[in-house]
Amino acid sequence: MVAANEQQLQAVPNQQQVLSFNQKELETIRRTVAKNATDDEFRMFMHLAQTYQLDPFNKEIWFIKYAKKGQNPKDVEPTIMTSRDGYLKIADRHPEYDGLSSDVVRKNDVFKRTMDGVEHEYSSDRGQIIGAYALVYRKDRKYPIYVFAPFNEYKGNAKIWNNYPSAMILKVAESMALKRAFTVSGLVSKEEMDVQSEPNDSNGPIDITPADQGNEKLRELTEREKEIAELVAGDKGYKQIVIDCLEYNFPGINNTNKKVSINDLDKAAYKQLVQTLQNAHEANAEPPDEEDDPLVEFEVPF
Length: 302
Known about the structure:
Pfam families: RecT
Radius of gyration: 22 Å
Distance between the termini: 60 Å
Protein name: Phage recombination protein Bet
Number of strands: 10
Largest sheet: 3 strands, mixed
Mean pLDDT: 76
Strand content: 15-25%
Number of domains: 3
Strand order of the largest sheet: 1-2-8
Oligomer: single chain
GO molecular function: DNA binding
Low-confidence stretches: 1-15, 194-217, 284-302
Organism: Iocasia fonsfrigidae
InterPro entries: Phage_lambda_Bet, RecT_fam
Shape: globular
């Protein structure tokens, strides 16, 4: 009986305050966060959100489908994602959570794993990143849960990995340790996945339109295109937000030869798109990058 109770504590978060949504809020989540979800997928998404008390409106959990060229997003298996902070929220609410210790290990550091943790000392010249470790402590465990994430196994080509390698590999280790410590299932974090965006090979956010004679001419960007290009900044995840917006506002466009762009959005829809991108930046919740260029029928000039 004791073992069964212990297992229950591992698997089920502390649910003193139950996250719930009214019908209008559910409809909003369905239209925005889980836009391409089937009925069953949406129920699964909301079940995980409520089980782990993660709020879709606060970008603590999100629904992603990686559609390849020509694929209907509804035919793609979904990925339900959270972030390191989502795992940390689950841990914080658990009565047995007793802290997290983590750090980045570099080539010249003195590092040794011990039974009850690690021994880690910095050197004067630390050298390149080798990886990161995380220790999660529970009140009902004698020893901490230990995870080491090798840098060469997780480093992606996305811009954020190039700009913040220490922070990213640390998030990988922390996410894995928190997930393991509290047996979180059904969720993955962006940092755990081998999802890498291709480098942006373009020379800038310029839409190249073929001329009648087969030559190429450069068209100046509209004010809308300049604003959105600055918010997207070449990131495929943010570009996907734009594409999702176009798909939502022009349903059925994939079944035609017509192209649409942000210039075709009405004022309200465009304002909502800008707000969505700004919120994503402010929340520091980068949308996952796509492995393939999605929905080529849409004209996105960057």
